Amino acid sequence: MADKAVPHFHNQAGVSVIAVGSKEFMCIGALPPFDHPHVFLDMGSETEIICQYCSTLFRYDPKLKPGTAEPAGCVWHDETPAASKSETVKPETVKAA
User: Fold this and answer.
1) How many other β-carbons are positioned within 10 Å of the β-carbon of residue 80?
2) What does pTM read for this prediction?
């Protein structure tokens, strides 16, 4: 399969800011299967953008190569492992009265 033409980034780690080397990209939120709809974000002439689904702040860094990010683990590829059950939030159990 060919690489994606548009870089995809995720925020599985929940970092406050992701520096990216591209001004046009897709945000997927968390890793599959817990990802949100993959949304195209375009910074245009701005240097920051917030994803409307997950509220991740992306900041353009011209020192980074296109398609890369800091933290580097926020770049998503098809071969990126999916989130495991241990990475998910477990709902609280409700005790019967």
Assistant:
1) 15
2) 0.79
